[in-house]
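Amino Acid Chain and Its Fold in Token Form
===========================================
Scope: a single protein chain, as residues and as a discrete description of its fold.
Amino acid sequence: labelled as such and written in the usual single-letter residue code.
Position: the record begins directly beneath this header, with no further notes in between.
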Amino acid sequence: MRNHTFCFMRATSFVTRTLGITILAVGCNLAHAADWTMDQLMASLAQTKPAKVNFVEKKYISTLDRPVESSGEMFYTPPDKLEKRTIKPKPERMLLERDMITLERGKHKFAIDLNESPELAALIESIRATLAGDRRSLELNYVVALTGTREQWKLALTPSNLQARQKVKRITLSGTAGEVREVEVQQADGDRSVMTIEKPRP
């Protein structure tokens, strides 16, 4: 149970980062849209190609005086392979492939079968639906709200699954034009994380 909880926490963070990859990867398509609608966003997401981004994440935990910071790289290979490599402060690798999530940290390795974790499966399905630009599937697992303008917009995802909602309250992506600048996840226990993403430098 302890390993399952630990993997769930890490995988939840994985979800938010991957959503950041998704929209940044199609940023050039979104930048030309004058009005921001879900249909336009989903159409652009459906064109997602293999992508790589850098991330810096700060976690705000109620029991700590200062945020915990980590950084690294994220990769997406269509249709269902997602990988996160944390470089600092300690190396860590998380891989999502088909219905399995594997976490490697040092000599330790954990795995979760999504078929045995309905709450985590709901979160992961949101990734796949987003990557595919599948609005219908996305809305099966989330209450989706897109607000703002081309210059300043927000996409809020609220889990509709009760078990998932007991872990994650809301995921909010913020951006300007075709770029995601920030991804915030609010946990049900009050803790939160804020992640900034950017394209790798040439």
In short: Residues 140 and 160 are 8 Å apart (CA to CA). The helical segments are 2-25, 27-30, 38-45, 118-132, 135-141, 162-165.
